[in-house]
Design brief:
homotetramer, 206 residues, 10 helices, elongated, disordered C terminus, DNA-binding, mainly alpha, Tetracycline Repressor, domain 2
DNA sequence: TATGAATGAGATTTCATTCAT
DNA sequence: CATGAATGAAATCTCATTCAT
């Protein structure tokens, strides 16, 4: 039975199982045994690979944040139009990426979000991502607005994105990604409209 | 110490202590012992008055939602100007009422929110409130917009309010209520601007 | 509310409530609160009148045993025929008295019986009664049998009576007193038959 | 110490420890900690192997009943003489088997018996066994008596057996198995004598 | 006399972690 | 590498008893 090179496979297996467990019963009811059962392994192995339950949870959150960052980055690199509106549009699209808002990832995300209020390690991860989103938005808005307005626009859009996620995660049927994107883009257009910019009308997604 | 007629006093004491405990260490680490210590009573009394921990948590969430509803209602009844814009403005103000966004209540609110994903009873309470907010907003927007636009406006504003709450709860220093209100009102003005309504400029709060 | 002379009334009320509670949920689930609810009083009063739960239980058992002894004594005193067979018949009749085998008393009796294995005080009460039954039976049998046979007859009949009680208490519908009496009398007749005594055939009960 | 394949060993160990604990302090005072101490393991393992205290108690009762059934079956299969009297004699012998009436098993049996009045699961187990005893006795009696008489004989003998057990369990020194068997066999002989059957006189046990 | 508020001990159960195999 | 046996800490709940009113 002993195999070499199992480490990356097992780690991914366990992270996926963690999200499945949180999706199923919530973070509070997620025990190592349940995660292990989802992964089809024994509970003891979690301590082996992650040093303990907390290590696994941290790794899981890290992966969700990494995936989210990646989804945004991919879209921004694919832009032909480098306008601020296009960049921010890509950020919106990335944040409502199918792989993020569908299934286990969304509930896991919100669960960690709430949990991070009182766990310094999770809070740090959260903050890094949060600040990146804000500074990216702010930077793009700055290209067409004065600083004060750009800051408010960035804060408003960030709040809107989070709010849509939140409401989506709480809806039993899951987030309606298309509607969420529509609302976010509409808001974006309104923000730009206040500054006399041209706003491309179509938001058909990838 | 034993006196008669303690029930309502103790119940309120324990609900307050629950919020304090959740604020302090988070829902996951909130034990009945910690709540009892906050209230200066013994742990057993929680089962006596609330039938158990779950009963107390439910009562606590119920109170938060009731307070929130009340804060909105008070402001709407105090309106001299019955315009849609004024009504919606009052709803925003109520949602960022000092007693709601300050201190323990805000974190407790978010904690329950996340928790409600997997607890039917909390979910039900959540849904009732959620739908009331949405239908109130929708109804006012309908007075100045076509149905489809009103729906989107209501969804957008609800998401914005939640998003601001959420980000506020996660910020270590707590929510900056004034900034949040400013962003929400700005968004509201934008929504109305799109339909050529007059938008009163001042949002000095009570 | 304070009344004088309540003591005997309250004591009887609580003893009756204790039997009702044991009948309803069994000795293990019988709490002072449940007893108090049955009696329509508060739990604290039990300690007041009986010094505690154990005191009440002991008083309850004592009453059951007293009632049983009384039921036997009444029948024996009422005998016109002083023959051994008549005396023993009266003992049997008393042991299957309606007030004993019907309703709460029977289950309470068996519950105490089992419990008395490990509670010296109950065991003592049990033993006193037990020995009285045995010595009464033995004494009557001695009038028509040699000592060794009388002893065995007494032991056998005592076992038969207990066994019928036991099986009756376990039967959901309760003990069928008539059938039990019939079996006990039949056994008695057989015991006498072995020694050539005349055995009156009729066992119609009081 | 952890080894594989411990499950059956631990289960038996815990069942035995349960009987020891009940024998020692009675069912009411038997805590999982005490059982665990008897078995030399930690309390948590009881939930691990039996799902909880109730599961262990049920398993214990099941084992006692199984052992009892086995003790009877062994004797009946060993019979050379297939007469009704021999069969019933074997049933009596089995019911007063040394392993049953000696030590912890007897007290545990009675404790469960009383407890089964209010626990459906135990009651079911009890009933199955009870009915088997009755129907076995009845069937054998039917071979030499009319139906009505056979039924009464079976009921009487069953009551006698239970009564002897009961009194034995309550006697501090434990049941005197020889005396109990003697009384039961004597009763059996009397039952047969009433129908003119030959009754072998010797009841020396295995 | 009687209540019910309150406590604190004790019981069960869950669970993350460790460790021998 | 992987298992599952086992522990011990912690959490919730129950309950008899006490006591001020």
């Amino acid at each position: 039975m002993p195999k070499v090179g199992m480490e990356p496979i097992r780690r991914q297996q366990l992270i996926t199982a963690t999200m499945a467990a949180i999706d199923e019963v919530g973070l509070a009811e997620t025990t190592v045994m349940r995660i292990a059962r989802h992964a089809g392994v024994s509970a003891g192995i979690i301590s082996h690979y992650f040093g303990g339950k907390d290590g696994l949870l941290e790794a899981t959150m890290r992966q969700i944040l990494t995936d989210l960052t990646g989804a945004v980055a991919v879209r921004r690199h694919a832009l032909e139009d480098g306008s601020p509106h296009a960049h921010i549009g890509a950020i919106i699209e990335g944040n409502f990426d199918r792989t993020q808002v569908t299934g286990p990832a969304a509930k896991t995300w919100l669960a960690f979000w709430a949990s991070s209020m009182h766990k310094p390690m999770l809070q740090r991860l959260q903050n890094v991502n949060d600040r990146r989103l804000y500074s990216n938005l702010c930077h793009q808005f700055r290209r067409v607005m004065p600083r004060a307005e750009a800051r408010n626009a960035a804060r408003g859009l960030a709040a809107m994105i989070d709010g849509l996620w939140l409401r989506g995660a709480l809806t039993p049927e899951g987030l309606d990604a298309d509607e969420a994107r529509l609302l976010a883009h509409t808001y974006l257009d309104q923000l730009f409209a206040h500054y006399g910019c041209t706003t491309p009308a179509s938001h058909t997604n990838s």
